[in-house]
Amino acid sequence: MAFRLPSTWAGAAAALAIALLTPSTAAAKPPVIALSNAYYGNNWRHQMVDAFRKAANQAKKDGLISDYIVLNGDNSVSAQISQMIDLILRKPDVILID
Predict the structure, then answer these.
(1) Which helix (H) or strand (E) covers residue 39, if one does?
(2) pLDDT tens, 59-93?
(3) 8 A C-beta contact, residue 98 and residue 48
(4) Is a pLDDT exceeding 80 seen at residue 11?
């Protein structure tokens, strides 16, 4: 019986690993995507945010995402940190930081 104990633990560990690594079908809802932009200091940043919004709107229509969030820090470190804290509390599935 002492020899079976390690194999029992190994089997239990393998079952737990499989359960943890297998995606749950009940939790398979489309993700929420968030973009935290530091500032709109140049044309490229405006284009980037506009392109993100356009792509996110299309992805939402297609059912690929459930929602998206865009925040701008107005070139303030403290504002962007505050926004990041807010985003973390809102628990989006993905946070993009620029």
Answers:
(1) none
(2) 999 999 999 999 999 999 999 999 999 999 999 99
(3) yes
(4) no
Q: CATH topology for 28-97?
A: Rossmann fold (3.40.50)
H-assigned helices in the chain:
4-21, 43-61, 77-90
59 neighbors 53 (Cβ within 8 angstroms) = no
What is the b/e burial string over 23-45, where b = at least 16 CB atoms within 10 angstroms of the residue's CB? eeeeeeeeebbbbbbbeeeeeee
Please report, for the chain, the start and end positions of each structural domain, with discontinuous segments joined by +: 28-97
**Sorting pLDDT into bands at 50, 70 and 90, what band is 15?**
very low
CA–CA dist 95, 51 (Å, integer): 16
Asked whether the beta carbons of 48 and 42 are under 8 A apart, the reply is no
